[in-house]
């Protein structure tokens, strides 16, 4: 069972149970990544097992790293992910070539229903990050956002809306504060 963009996942449904099984698998693999003592080649190999796809050339990940599934992460070439990042990837995460992701960045692709009687239900929405994007430490990208090529997300920003290519976004919620000259 595959969870797709815009999927509404009902608590305790078969899709919800599939998500829990995927999370258990991801925790086992990320525990191996996070143990330490691994060279980048070993980390890349385990990351490939986690995602089901070989990471692109020049991929670098500094543990610890956490994800809820792993199978819904697509990574381009020359991507750097710093320590402490958490990717909630059930809705899908695409990271373009040449991206740099700072310490403790959170990328979330699930949102819970606002009604208290349905709070366990979730909506999945993909996060797409273009090429050559720099995401500063402690930034949070919320479900459904797209970050355009060559954009910069400032440290601590909470991205709730799309960020155009060649822009710098900062704040809570993040707003475009300038265009990058080139």
Automatic annotation (TrEMBL):
Record flagged with keyword Transferase: yes
An example molecular function term from Gene Ontology annotations: O-acyltransferase activity
Pfam families in alphabetical order: Hexapep, Hexapep_2
Gene3D superfamilies on file: Hexapeptide repeat proteins (2.160.10.10)
UniProt keyword list: Repeat, Transferase
The family this protein is said to belong to: Belongs to the transferase hexapeptide repeat family.
PANTHER family named among the record's database cross-references: ACETYLTRANSFERASE C18B11.09C-RELATED, SIALIC ACID SYNTHASE-RELATED
Name assigned to this protein: Sugar O-acetyltransferase
Biological source species: Candidatus Stercoripulliclostridium merdipullorum
């Amino acid at each position: 069972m595959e969870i797709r963009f815009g999927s509404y996942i009902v608590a305790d449904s078969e899709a919800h149970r599939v998500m829990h099984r995927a999370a258990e698998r991801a925790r086992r693999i990320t525990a191996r990544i996070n143990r330490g003592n691994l060279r980048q080649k070993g980390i890349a190999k385990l990351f490939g097992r986690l995602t089901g796809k070989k990471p692109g050339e020049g991929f670098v990940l500094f543990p610890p790293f956490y994800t809820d599934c792993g199978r819904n992460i697509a990574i381009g070439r020359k991507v750097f992910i710093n320590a402490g990042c958490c990717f909630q990837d059930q809705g899908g995460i695409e990271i373009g070539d040449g991206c740099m992701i700072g310490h403790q960045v959170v990328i979330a692709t699930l949102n819970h229903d606002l009604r208290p009687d349905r709070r366990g239900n979730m909506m999945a929405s993909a996060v797409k990050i273009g090429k050559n994007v720099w995401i500063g430490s402690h930034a949070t990208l919320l479900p459904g956002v797209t970050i355009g090529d060559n954009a910069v997300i400032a440290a601590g920003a909470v991205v709730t809306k799309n960020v155009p290519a060649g822009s710098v976004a900062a704040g809570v919620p993040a707003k475009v504060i300038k265009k990058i000259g080139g």
